[in-house]
Amino acid sequence: MSDLPLADIQGFILRTYAMPILRVLALKVTQPEAARQFLGTLVGCGNDRHPQIAIATATGWTVKPQYCLNIGLTYTGLAALGLPPSSLTSFPEEFAAGAAARAERVGDTGSSSPAHWKDPFACPDLHILLFLFAETEDALEQASSQLQAMYARDGALSLLSTQEARSLPGNVAHFGYRDGFAQPTIEGGLPALMPDVLPKAAAGEFLLGHPSQYKDFNYPVPVPEALGRNGSFLAFRILAQDCHGFEQFLTEAEHRTGLDRELVAAKLCGRWRNGTPLSLSPDSQDELIPLEKRNSFDYVPSDSVPDAFDDSRGYRCPLGSHIRRMNPRSSIVAGNGGLKHRITRRGLPYGPPYDPANPGDGIERGLLGLFIGVSLKDQFEFLMSTWANDGNFAPGLHDTRDPIIGNNGSDASSDSTFLIPIEGQKLPIELIGLSRFVACRGAAYCFLPAVAAIRYISALPTVSFKSDILDNISRQGSA
């Protein structure tokens, strides 16, 4: 039995909904009191016939719902809703600064900088993100219509933008890799959808107010406790993918090295495109390894996987490959080991499947990514800055970056290369000329309040003063 209050926790922190449709609504608070009332209706304060976040909490399902609704609040959104300064100043500095101000830290420079983001993601007027996952288009439209009527009532909120995502055939991402294998299993939470052989993550790595992954340290809870406890943080990102550039690179790498292009693709990612990890099948896309076993591996022998192949030199899975950088497992890497900075990943692709016969169709395609953890700085930002974009991630990588999501190409300060160690050879194969295959087109840092916290916010009294914090943020945004 779990000791976590699952009915109080937004569901996508602890579970994968496995729904094929996602709509993200970006909203601005225009009438604070009415906006707080709107939040109350989402957690049963009033007419519970409307869409409810309670349907999408972490409790178990007897029947899978047709949709799941979750909510994220930006720092400016909390201020616009009327939280007092004593609460606002208790939030972490990286969340208060926001994604646009922290862009350079995570590699969002050049073509990925906030100057190129979609509206309204570099704007302080972005206050609330609603994440509506659905099983069918009909369920999506029905819930969307109800939500629109609710947030527009009494001029509570105005819609700034809508982002759409849909799963692709075969559950692949746009570069052709089957996705969704590696998610941490959280202590006291729900069973993992995909079996995970790694140690369970401490609840306080993903939920405020619980023991963290570090001995004798818990992450501070925003005050009052009714606001912060059982909440978390989310980095929402719109990630455009250069499918044609990626496929061209594979072809060119094949010609330069003599390696099969699909092996090159596997080395860059750490998995074959069907999801089979190189750690289990270094020479071929072994279809005999069942899906439920494709997350059952480690890079070095460990207590959890004592019979793991010792790939500490990266002969099977290169040290700099994408999945090894983002989830080093038991490897010894920067940041006190590979199990101290885990995140939960949600999201779906946007745009139609890439057609190699029509590479110049001008259609943007990519991923709406949701990256969840109790600390934006120690989890999401650490992964992007130290592991994705720093060659000091592990010994021997030199000044290289994540080959798929890294800040490669013209935006980078040095040559963009990728190293493939070969057993028996003194020097690795060096792939040169990586470009920026994934570019950020918008981002937001959100607080994910618990159900009790949403009720707390909805019951805040109307105040006669305007928050100095909100005034300062507005001035900074217009500067």
Descriptive account of the structure:
- By secondary structure, this protein is α+β, with helices and mostly antiparallel strands.
- It contains 13 helices and 10 strands.
- The chain has helices spanning 11-14, 32-42, 75-80, 85-88, 93-97, 137-152, 225-228, 243-257, 261-269, 322-326, 376-388, 451-458, 468-478; strands at residues 21-29, 67-73, 128-134, 157-166, 232-241, 344-350, 366-373, 417-420, 429-432, 438-448.
- The strands form 3 sheets. A 4-stranded antiparallel β-sheet has the order 2-3-1-4.
- Helix 2 packs antiparallel against helix 12 and helix 8 crosses helix 9.
Helix content: 10-25%
Q: Which value, in Å, is the CA radius of gyration?
A: 22 Å
Q: Strand fraction band?
A: 15-25%
By oligomeric state, this entry counts as single chain
Q: Please give the largest β-sheet.
A: 4 strands, antiparallel
Quote the average pLDDT.
92
Give the helix/strand class. Answer: alpha+beta
Write the layout of secondary structure elements.
Layout: H1 11-14, E1 21-29, H2 32-42, E2 67-73, H3 75-80, H4 85-88, H5 93-97, E3 128-134, H6 137-152, E4 157-166, H7 225-228, E5 232-241, H8 243-257, H9 261-269, H10 322-326, E6 344-350, E7 366-373, H11 376-388, E8 417-420, E9 429-432, E10 438-448, H12 451-458, H13 468-478
Antiparallel strand pairs: 1-3, 1-4, 2-3, 5-7, 5-10, 6-7, 8-9
Helix pairs in contact: 2-12, 8-9
